[in-house]
Design a protein that fits this description.
Elements: H1 5-15, H2 17-21, E1 25-29, E2 34-39, H3 53-75, E3 79-90, E4 97-102, H4 105-118, E5 122-131, E6 137-149
Antiparallel strand pairs: 1-2, 2-4, 3-6, 4-5, 5-6
Helix pairs in contact: 3-4
Length: 151
């Protein structure tokens, strides 16, 4: 089963309603990258009238998590995944529509392959950049995920 943006957005409604209510939406996913957007609105702003850091984090995390979920499903193995670390930096006020992109699907492939071959838990760190509609970077995230074949 391939994961599509439509399926991811339906998943948000039922499993991550806070992300859905605040406007986080998947726009694109393939084997290499995932793109998620969120528009700054009243419901997701901070007191400084920009996109709240936690909403940016939800959107950024979804790009990496969706890539891993897609690869786990494609592997056909029973693999557990867990977010173990994240880092973030913010460089500009986030207003308007912010687009988050992770283009490191190849790293997920290598990590899952290694986890399957060794039977050991493996970690992968994926990077996400958030840009505004003028293509200016507003934030940068790093998420470290652990994957392990369940026995």
């Amino acid at each position: 089963m391939n994961i599509t943006p439509k399926k991811l957005n339906a998943f948000l409604i039922f499993k991550l309603p806070a992300a859905y209510v605040t406007g986080v939406r998947a726009k694109y996913i393939d084997d290499v990258k995932c793109i998620v957007t969120v528009k700054h609105r009243w419901i997701n702003q901070n007191p400084f009238k920009s996109l709240f850091w936690a909403v940016q984090g939800m959107a950024a995390e979804l790009t990496t998590g969706a890539l891993i979920i897609n690869k786990v499903k494609a592997s056909g193995e029973n693999i557990a995944m867990l977010l173990v670390k994240n880092d973030a930096s913010y460089s500009k006020k986030a207003t308007g529509r912010i687009t988050f992109e992770c283009s490191e699907g190849h790293l997920v492939d290598e990590t899952i392959k290694s986890a399957i071959e060794t039977g050991l838990g493996k970690q992968v760190t994926l990077n996400v950049v958030g840009k505004n509609s003028e293509n200016i970077e507003v934030s940068r995230f790093s998420f470290t995920w652990s994957v392990k074949v369940r026995s």
